[in-house]
């Protein structure tokens, strides 16, 4: 993975966290909705886990945002 790709992944993870916090949702809540552990969800937000497009769309649906808003930098 190139450094630029790694930075983009971290930016997407930060966007997910920011959107979750704006909704006042906990990591536990999103983990429950995604049928994964809180620890697994935490790794998504930290950028340790590569997520699939399917997972990105699931997260966007739960957060009630467009998936593109999770990809684009604010």
TrEMBL record:
<feature type="domain" description="HTH cro/C1-type">
    <location>
        <begin position="16"/>
        <end position="70"/>
    </location>
</feature>
<protein>
    <submittedName>
        <fullName>Helix-turn-helix protein</fullName>
    </submittedName>
</protein>
<dbReference type="InterPro" id="IPR010982">
    <property type="entry name" value="Lambda_DNA-bd_dom_sf"/>
</dbReference>
<dbReference type="Pfam" id="PF01381">
    <property type="entry name" value="HTH_3"/>
</dbReference>
<keyword id="KW-0238">DNA-binding</keyword>
<dbReference type="GO" id="GO:0003677">
    <property type="term" value="F:DNA binding"/>
</dbReference>
<dbReference type="InterPro" id="IPR001387">
    <property type="entry name" value="Cro/C1-type_HTH"/>
</dbReference>
């Amino acid at each position: 993975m190139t450094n630029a790709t790694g930075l983009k992944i971290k930016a997407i993870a930060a966007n997910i966290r920011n959107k979750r916090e704006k909704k006042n949702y906990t990591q536990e809540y999103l983990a429950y909705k995604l049928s994964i552990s809180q620890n697994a969800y935490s790794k998504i937000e930290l950028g340790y886990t590569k997520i699939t497009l399917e997972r990105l769309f699931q997260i966007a649906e739960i957060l009630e945002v467009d998936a593109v808003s999770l990809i684009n930098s604010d």
